[in-house]
Design goal:
With 179 residues, this protein is mainly alpha-helical. It folds into two domains: 91 residues, Rna Polymerase Sigma Factor, Chain: A (Orthogonal Bundle), CATH 1.10.1740.10; 74 residues, Winged helix-like DNA-binding domain superfamily/Winged helix DNA-binding domain (Arc Repressor Mutant, subunit A, Orthogonal Bundle). The chain has nine helices and no strands. α4 packs across α8. The N and C termini lie far apart (46 Å).
Amino acid sequence: MANLAEEQLIAQAKAGDRRAYERLLELSTRAASRLAFAMLLDRSEAEDALQDAALRAWKRLSNLRPGSPFQPWFVAIVANQCRDIRRGRWWKVVRVPEVTRTEAIDEADWLEGEDLRRAVNGLPFDQRAAILLHFHLDMPLDDVGIALGISTGGVKKRINRALKRLRPAMALSEVKVNG
């Protein structure tokens, strides 16, 4: 359940208050940007996904159920936007030069354990999203369930399946660290 202050911001945003919506985004942007970068492994694409998701969320704010927290709902939109971008990468040929970033993403933290990163990137979307939301963003299982539109039990099943697939990569990463 959303707290009272968040519920007020949501109500104001639904009534058309852009500042209230911007405040909701401010509270969720860090987690959403970390998820986008983890899923896309490209800073520029992650920023595009986040911006597109923010616009989609603004247009669909009426779909947020009363009493539901904003962040899991918004993170689900970001995850879906990332999936759409990954599906459509074939048409991207020209790269736009880097622009000034508003929030730095620590790539070094993510690039440690490259074998594991590749393995996570190779998971099916539903499992990858569950793993990244829970372990990378430290979201509680209940919030992951809200974000993915499934039960907490469903989240646990996806995470367990993903961990079984990741075990070989985790063992390889451990050998490199200990070796």
